[in-house]
Amino acid sequence: KKKKSMEGKYLALVALLCCVITLCLCEDQRPQYHFLPAKNWMNDPNGPSYYKGIYHLFYQYNPYGAVWGNMNWGHAVSKDLVHWTRLPPAISPTPNSYDSGGIFSGSMSFDPTTGNPIAIYTGVNPQVQCLAFPANLSDPYLTHWIKYSQNPIIKAAPPTFNVGFRDPTTSWKSPSTGRQLILVGSGSSATGGAALLYSSTDLVHDWQYTGHTFFDARGNTVENGGMWECPDAYNLTVHGVTDIFYIVKGSANALGYGDHYWSGSYNTHNDTFNFRGIHGVYDYGHNFYASKTFYDPVKRRQILWGWIQEADSSSSYSARGWAGIQSLPRHITPDTVRNDGSILINPIEELTTLRGTSWHWNNIKLSGQNTFVLPSAVSATGKQFELQMEVEFTKPQLAKINSYGIIIRKSDRESTRIEYQPEKGPFMHTDLPGADYINYNTSTWEECRDICFYQTVKGDSNFCRAYVLYQGHCFLKIGIPNQVPNTLATSGTRELLFVNRANSSLSPTTAKDDDGGPVVGYPNEQHASVIRRNLRVFVDHSIVEVFSNGGRNRITSRIYPTLATSTGVEIFVDAQPGTYTIKSVQVWAMNSFWA
After folding, report:
1. pTM value?
2. Does 44 qualify as catalytic in the annotation?
3. How far apart (Å, rounded) are the C-alpha atoms in residues 257 and 288?
4. Is residue 252 within 8 Å of residue 261, measured between CB atoms?
5. pLDDT band at residue 22 under the 50/70/90 scheme
6. Is the preceding omega at residue 126 within 30 degrees of 0, hence cis?
7. How far is the C-alpha of 221 from the C-alpha of 224, rounded, in Å?
8. What does the pLDDT average to over 319-348?
9. In CA terms, which of 52, 205, 440, 499 is 20 to 30 Å from 257?
């Protein structure tokens, strides 16, 4: 009996230690300068806005567990978009009503007469559009909300749009009719995703479908998606003019990416969008989705939030007790240097207030076979830091380089690589069969390469990772298939930037595939002798956000290191033997905004 008693105590102690280790690991993976609730599930950002000196962030929230369900609008407030205070849920389902199935995503608009905030959201039972108003307008925190007595304001989508009906946008005033306009995300099984255009006299009364979409997938569901969730539409200012650069966005899950955008102009005569620029994506990360922007009247800028999903099993994050993160707030501007309709997305400048101790190195020499190991003082902050790196390589040097970049969260058994992979080719008599998404008539491989690399034909070539010239046709590839001999083909691969997660975690349940895509470089690089590249990387425990080339490329990735020693940081160049100079590296420890 005594032996059994001792065995029982031993097993109980082992179980307790396992619980403690699991709890420590879960907390070690919890970000410290990204917003997330104290516990439970979070997804889409909703209704980001500014009111009476306070920034507001609402979000999809389950108060009862770390899995999707029981959707409420969670709520947090800030005075600087960096330091946040959590508040109780703002809007919750009413039992046995039009929204008893959940308070789905929506936006914040402002009464065109009084300027008072109005929340427009999707209620579920089934999907209908609804309003809510602040209970106390003198409360700058907008803590309590009252639902409109005449909800729902829009009861159903037009019959031809039979794939979803949710996520209304922030309103704007029609230049032609003076009515208030919003978009609602939907789709058609025949023609694909769509942003349906609705109008009202004052955001409360006389809601009508305008009879047409604002913009849609135009039947191309492969490239543009079958249903658009969380649509968005906004102007960006170019040289002081706000009417010439317009963005439409839909969360479409097409071509392997979540949040797609199209640039063009606003047709003021019939309230439609004219696509005439770039079809791109906000972020190359698989886990960046359901984003939402708002106009910041304080600094006159468009701010972007995105939901960062988990990349682990549901059982893992359910046991951990929290799931879902908001991205760092980002500032969207037109790329006026490229001037092709593309955009720049960068972290807001206020994030520099979180910087702590810094380190700086210039002209780091690497042989192509070694790495530069940052000192232990950096490793001590290796779970929570910002790093900027700049390089300049000649084109002959790049021809000898397999990849270069940064290794983060490194130990002897775990590591994550953020790496550039220079272009390769042309490969004569070589085909890359499969992964085609568009083709053009082209006579030379040089023309084909330039379409893939530099978007010399405007449109969807922004996604091209590889090309094949075959019998007068230029085939652009969304992936990089295996090479096969073909005497009639010439092929090549574009420069890529990706987060390599193959060894990021010892956990068998976490995602190990790459996050990344084709590099958008600086203008006129095809004629340059030296290629300049930079990286700005934010590491916050289990999340990595990467910005490159001035905000032209963005990657958000989730990693889940399990070892306490996985804090090392290294700079590497994997290349043929030679001398390769890293122009500069700077690192800052990042402080928690919860402190």
Report:
1. 0.94
2. yes
3. 9
4. no
5. very low
6. yes
7. 5
8. 95
9. 440
